[in-house]
Write a structure and sequence with these properties.
The chain has 277 residues and is mostly helical. It contains twelve helices and five strands. The protein has a three-stranded antiparallel beta sheet. A two-stranded parallel sheet has the order 1-5. This is Aminotransferase-like plant mobile domain-containing protein.
Length: 277
């Protein structure tokens, strides 16, 4: 069974950041919104399929956390706040927004897709329309980063809220991103628990990249690997003793080699187990 995420489109917005560059006026305006973090994104986001697989198998839909070592590590809106810089107070975000609004009118009644948003950004950039440019830019971010889903057409995004950028700070975006992701994790974990054919795919909507920032990857991937855990614990215990003993040249060299070996164990295992989707 393969776990797919829906975050591939955000890399197109990151590519826009790198190639087309935001003007000073555009960047200054975006920095006045809750989504200021997006303007500085330069590196592609990659989500580990192996990590998602492991985390789905450990999801507790009752407590909203991950079962690790006999305990449950809670996943909360505060985690989203730290990972994405979004506030967790304010008015509830109306994701089911089907009302007509100015942002929709910019696309002249046509389907709103990733490609049409990119084209509209280029058009508005040429026209030097900073306000409308920022509205479409945030629309892209909402669809590709904060509330990504399998659909190719933009939907389940609060279009009308973008008509007034000055009001965006009054909404609880952190809670909205959290609720959307938790709902998707719970559905995907239920399907995962039921099992399926080897080639079956489970799609995880929402900002799944947050999960990589919340839990240290090795804490999940190595939780059942007793042999590796014991090797690492022995090395770390030896490193602790060396620290306590002092600082002769040989001890310092041993400390360095020991730490390098610990780091190498983690780096080797994570790089072999990682699958970018």
């Amino acid at each position: 069974m393969r776990i797919k995420n829906t975050m591939t489109n955000i890399n197109k917005l990151i590519a826009y950041n790198n190639t087309d560059k935001l003007s000073t006026a555009q960047k200054d305006r975006l920095l006045q919104t809750p989504f200021k973090w997006v303007v500085d994104m330069k590196d592609n986001i990659k989500v580990s399929g192996i990590l998602l697989d492991e985390m789905l198998s450990r999801w507790d839909s009752v407590t909203h956390g991950f079962r690790v070592g006999g305990k449950t590590v809670a996943f909360t809106p505060v985690d989203v706040c730290f990972a994405l810089g979004l506030q967790t107070v304010g008015i509830t975000v109306p994701l089911q927004d089907k009302s007509d609004c100015h942002v929709k009118s910019l696309f002249n009644g046509k389907d709103i897709t990733v490609d049409s948003m990119l084209e509209k950004l280029k058009d508005l950039n040429r026209e030097e329309d900073v306000e409308d440019f920022c509205k479409v830019y945030i629309l892209f971010a909402l669809f590709a980063l904060y509330f990504p889903r399998k659909s190719t057409n933009v939907c389940n995004v609060p279009f009308s809220l973008l008509d007034d950028l000055n009001m965006l700070d009054t909404y609880n975006w952190g809670q909205a991103v959290y609720d959307f992701l938790v709902d998707s994790i719970t559905k995907a974990a239920t399907t995962y628990a039921q099992g399926g054919a080897a080639g079956q795919e489970i799609t995880l909507s929402g900002c799944s990249a947050v999960l990589q920032a919340v839990l240290p990857q090795q804490r999940i991937l190595f939780a059942q690997n007793e042999e590796l855990r014991e090797r690492i614990f022995r090395l770390e215990e030896g490193l602790k003793l060396l620290r306590e003993e002092g600082g002769s040249g040989k001890i310092q060299e041993d400390k360095k080699r020991c730490q390098q070996l610990v780091n190498r164990l983690f780096e080797t295992c994570t790089s072999e187990d990682k699958m970018d989707l």
